[in-house]
């Protein structure tokens, strides 16, 4: 396991939790409840990778890509140079067509999963991305009512990303944001890694925590740790 | 007499018992007193200095203005000194996380009691249970699901080799996976399909996927077609999957009939393509072998047969005969990787897929 090639997330404290970063070609799901920061975290990981010259692509299926960038800059003023990375092509933020087509089609299944995969491949091909975030795969579940077809689709998606030589980060809604309800439906077994994000406030105080539940091919910390979303990015309180 | 002797350095006398006796003068006593006092002062100084060395980092951490850095400093200090009381200087949830870190490091279950939040407490107990392989601690967690998850982690650490851990899981979600993994591992490691009969035979995708992703016989990169890909398509049960794996591992086609259904067909064809070294790969006929598989499985079946044929005959033209671009890429990548031959990748027209193929061939060489 020591020879594993990894992609550093660049997120403060997260690489300590991952014992160095995400193993290359792993398909990792970032799962959490609403407001846990899944989109921002995956975007921040891509931002740091792009800063290091690793071509990265963010595929926004739920929001307009411009909104994603706007929210990212608004949340993290320190990362305002994200525009430079987008302009020089190291970071691609796409998915507009896919999102629009999904939302404008009354019968969502008519915009098939094959179209999504095809759109994703096109975006990945734009800058030969090595790190890709898809936000979110939960939308795909909504599109595909049949459970078996959904699982088949997710398997095809992750296999395809591996074949393209891509390390993937996919966001997903968890049925519960409480840790005591930590149970994953079968599609989560498809992924090589699971990063779970929780809300774990006391009374009226909202606090956030995360843990690595699984990371195939790599050791990792099992500790549940608090994290904050600060103007300078995510701060994960892991052991240094 | 004493006045007369004052100032004389010392005088050896012979005592009544015959031993020599040292008699100190007043000035010697004063000198000795001064030396003793000096030593005491020095000792006190050293003690104070040591005390401040211990206290200095705590004060230094508490003096840090930036909260994030202060929290990190206190957390690190608590860990380095194995002192969970330092964690009390932190607000929730940082204090709990700090306690978990100290407890996990020192493997002290009692230290977990210093956590306030139940999530951190169960994480703390689970970490120590897993690292000490002692699932009895999991009983300290009151929430049934969290307690079961704790025992599951201990079982996972032992590669599901101890069925007694499964008995500690009150939550069926974890218990069903644990039992299935235990018997599945027994079956595949001993090639004894009898163990499969203990595994549930009703459709349970979660358990099925658990077997596929955590089981002993899982082969992640086999022919570059994830085994899970099949599982996403066929309605296998955990038991039929167990039969299938044992059949393939032991090259026993009779077990394929026990698996039944589509997975039974997959089983038979796997024995032809993946495992049977005596197969004449040159004569493998994908159309014939895949003729009776369901339509949704046919593409994958053809891909599997053609990839097996190409890989075992080192013949890239077999891949190119598949007729579906993406599946051809997969087949070619497998071939390139197996024979460390990146030149095969030139047959891939898509630049991204070609690049991935070259990386996979190069990595294999490295």
User: Which strand order does the major sheet of chain A show?
Assistant: 5-4-6-7-3-8-9-10-11
Structural class of chain B: mainly alpha
Query: What ranges of chain B have pLDDT less than 50 throughout 5 or more consecutive residues?
Result: 1-20, 47-55, 217-226
Order of helices and strands of chain B: HEEHHHHHHHHHHHHHHHHH
Describe the global form of chain A: globular
The class by helix and strand makeup of chain A works out as alpha/beta
Described by strand count, sense and barrel closure, the largest sheet of chain B is:
2 strands, antiparallel
Proportion in β-strands of chain A: 15-25%
- Oligomeric state of the chains? heterodimer
Count every helix of chain B, treating DSSP H or I runs of 4 or more residues as helices.
18
Q: What is the level-2 CATH architecture name of chain A?
A: 3-Layer(aba) Sandwich
Q: From the alpha-carbon coordinates, what is the Rg of chain B to the nearest angstrom?
A: 36 Å
Question: How would a textbook summarize the main sheet of chain A?
Answer: 9 strands, mixed
Q: What is the helix content of chain B?
A: 55-70%
Order of helices and strands of chain A: EHEEHEHHEHHEHHEEEEE
CATH class of chain A: Alpha Beta
Beta-strand content of chain B = under 5%
Question: What is the residue-averaged pLDDT of chain A?
Answer: 85
Over the alpha carbons, how many angstroms does the gyration radius of chain A reach? 17 Å
Helix content of chain A: 25-40%
Q: Quote the CATH topology of chain A.
A: Rossmann fold
